[in-house]
Amino acid sequence: MKSGEIYNGWKERKSQIEIRKNFTDAVMNQIYQYEREKRKPLFDGHQLIELISTRPLSKAAVITAGAVIGLVRITFVVYAFLWC
Amino acid sequence: MTQEIEVIRQVLEGDIESFGLIVERYEKQVVRIIKNMTNNAESCEDIAQDVFFTAYKKLAYFDPGRSNFSTWLFTIARNKSINAMKKKRPVSMGELPEKINPRNPYDKLAERELFELLDRELLALPRGQRRAFVLAEFEELSYEEIAQIEGTRIGTIKSRVNRAKKKLRSAIKGFGGDTI
């Protein structure tokens, strides 16, 4: 065998390549995932409502916060009324 | 080429699905370039996936007036290969095989040994030489395209490819063959 043949045989072997069948799908899935992440809003209202409604502690925290804010507001109005 | 530009335009206008055509067209070539540049069969597909993902993200920066799409894509593949090789331990000359001197160079075993020898000689080439050689010999790109990918002059590429060929030729000679 001449070295030219050996070299060409080696080149041919280096040129043969098998890649996994779902390679394109894997790339496209990564791209779709990237696009989904990019389009996701920073503040998701639905997710917040779901979070509050499914956890009793979150519900209690929201009700307490609402009550405190309401109380502060009433105090402020009464104080302003008496001052006048 | 025009068809390719049209596909790229569609992708940039939001038709993500069309990018699959580009992946299908270049997947083998990109994986092969990475495999031959890094000599890493296990992770070459993962690196190639990263190449296509990067190409998708940077597609808006591709300028058809400056280069072919393939040249642009192979430049990304080249850069990712360099990064992958930085993470990998370089092969020292001490790991190269001893000179093989088979009694019968015609048999399959001798051929396999010679292929392995050439693989190791390729791996032992300086990285710039190996990249130029891989792109010129396995991908059959023009010197001009390789110079664009490597960001250097055509003369430098010619000399790198010639030096690489010379080293491989002497490896075959050392084995007992004639010239390439």
Structural class of chain B: mainly alpha
Overall pLDDT of chain A, averaged? Answer: 87
Radius of gyration of chain A: 33 Å
Helix residue percentage of chain A = over 70%
Characterize the overall form of chain A. rod-shaped
The separation of the N and C termini of chain A measures 110 Å
**Total of helices of chain A:** 4
**Protein chains sharing the most extensive interface:** A-B, 25 and 37 residues
Query: Which radius of gyration of chain B do the C-alpha atoms yield?
Result: 19 Å
Residue-averaged pLDDT of chain B: 86
What does it look like?
The complex is a heterodimer of chains A (84) and B (180). By secondary structure, chain A is an all-alpha fold. Chain A has two domains: 2-37, no CATH class; 45-83. Chain A has four helices and no strands. The radius of gyration of chain A is 33 Å and the shape is rod-shaped. The model of chain A has no long low-confidence stretch (mean pLDDT 87). By secondary structure, chain B is mostly helical. Chain B is 68% helix and 0% strand. Chain B has eight helices and no strands. Chain B has helices at 2-12, 19-38, 44-57, 69-87, 108-124, 127-138, 143-150, 154-175. In chain B, helix 2 packs across helix 3 (44-57). The longest helix of chain B has 22 residues, at 154-175. In chain B, 32% of the residues are buried.
